[in-house]
Amino acid sequence: MELSTVKDAFDRVAKKQKLSTSKSLEVIDQIGHEIEQALSNIQTIQDPAYPVDRKSILKELKTKLNEIGPHKQLEGSQKELNINLMKYLKVLERVFIPDISKAYRNVDFDSHTVNQIIVSHFYREGLFDIADLLIYEAGEPEAISLKSHFMEMHQILEAIKDRDLQPALNWVSSNRAKLKQIGSDLELKLHRLHFVEILQKQSQADALNYARTYLAPFASVHMDEIQKLMGCLLWVGKLDRSPYSELMDPIHWEKASEEITGQFCSFLAQSYESPLNVAVTAGVEGLPTLLKLAIVMAAKKPEWQAMKQLPIPVELRKEFQFHSIFVCPVSRDQGNDENPPMLLPCGHVLCKQSIHKLSKSNTRIFKCPYCPFEASVAQCRQLHF
Known about the structure:
The protein is mainly alpha-helical and 385 residues long. The protein has helices at 2-43, 54-68, 70-95, 111-124, 128-138, 147-161, 166-174, 176-181, 186-201, 204-215, 223-231, 251-267, 275-296, 301-306, 352-358, and strands at residues 341-343, 349-351, 366-367, 374-375, 381-382.
């Protein structure tokens, strides 16, 4: 609803802007026409057959320009545009609260951990000079241990952009045991890319020799893939018109880069996505909800600052959900350390606070809300996700 309001206000401003521009061009054209006409009349003075007074021509031009009233016409259209612009700004201020500091809460962060996360982010993005400067200024010398690894990763990725697979193949070869342990077929994918490049740029014999040397070792496990690549040998120089043309799709190079990045980070015990990037993106998604809550609780600022758990859910996309979440089917509260999920003997699960309410503060047997089974608090066991 809010976005549609912003769009409607924007559309009104855009319409007024178009009308103002059209009006301005129309007035300019009128003025230009009158000036050109006056110039044409002045030029006829040189012709003895047409004795014309220059002053009278200029006086007539001034009269016509006064009749057109360009300032008044332009001022009117511009005024309407300015009014709509001011309304649009008010809509933006109402929908998008500019002061996001209202959602700020005092949280004690470990500066060492935060510095490590930021340095790792810069290295991951290839901003090595900035990361080195932060390490120096923050006094975090141990963080530099990641630099050489991420430099190697970026050198491999840059080479792939230039269709040079040798650095990637060297890295895969040196980490073959680790990749085999996790069942990765990254090495085959890289050799397949190289094989297709040879088919496009070199001879059939070159491609066949490469296949015998580098693809044959994968035949016992990936025979279907090898047979498909051997079929490509019949289409040397015209692979784009073959049944295997999809092998030329640039998406395969992009996927190879993504997989190398993922495996590289995994071997460094780093997440595929930058933790800083994930935190900022999730924060941007949750910010509107936090701002509304902060405004509602403006009169209870100490209580807002002391909260360990928000009283309302903050909806985020699935990629920001890193662990299972339990919501009590009775109270609709999300489980936490103070109110953990509890397993009843019957197999149903409720939050601890709901069980206490049902048992009248642990003093009596209670009936499960979802089946006829009765239980006591002592029979319930805490669940750990």
